[in-house]
Design goal:
This protein is 28% helix and 27% strand. The chain is α+β, with helices and mostly antiparallel strands. The chain has one domain: Peptide deformylase (Peptide Deformylase, Alpha-Beta Complex).
Length: 169
């Protein structure tokens, strides 16, 4: 499984709800986690690999030696949020690009697990930021869309480089 790099148009496509909770879904989640670790990330959404399902994985440690920290969220929806804070973010689909993004500091998320059971969880600070970032991918929203005008100008040369390297021929 390969992480798509900007400007791949599939990154903007968004995703659809998962309706089949089976071994194929579980295998996809395992592959997403493996790709996330391979790229040294802390989260990965299925659309970043060209799979357009409402599925995301994360591990805030970024370390496969801590599987107890792994989370798999299927069909996640934010039902409440509060607080706002800016922090630097990067993205596996934008190698070498970072910028300040404003996000809620606390979110309540309703989601299904790999068996289809419904859950609700409250996430704070860094964990909340990861979930919000990955949920944006499920809607075709990229972290660069959330950057300030000044940051957009600052990263423009790096985006142009990615467009040259990874753009369609």
């Amino acid at each position: 499984m390969q992480v798509l790099v900007y400007p791949n148009p599939l990154l903007r496509r968004g995703s659809v709800d998962v309706t089949r909770f089976d071994e194929t879904l579980a295998a996809t989640a395992r592959e997403l986690l493996a790709a996330m670790y391979e790229e040294r990330g802390v989260g990965l959404a299925a659309p970043q690999t060209g799979i357009h399902l409402n599925l995301l994985v994360l591990n805030p440690t970024g370390d496969r030696a801590h599987p107890e920290e792994e989370k798999v969220l299927v069909n996640p929806k934010i039902v409440r949020q509060k607080g706002r804070a800016f922090a630097e973010e990067g993205c596996l689909s934008f190698p070498g690009i970072y910028g300040e993004v404003e996000r809620a500091t606390e979110i309540v998320v309703r989601y299904a697990d790999l068996q289809g059971a419904e859950h609700e969880a409250t996430y704070h600070d860094f964990l909340a930021r990861i979930v919000q970032h990955e949920m944006d991918h499920l809607r075709g929203v990229l972290f660069i869309d959330r950057l300030s005008p000044a940051d957009k100008v600052r990263i423009r040369p790096r985006l142009a480089e990615l467009e040259r390297r990874f753009g369609a021929a």
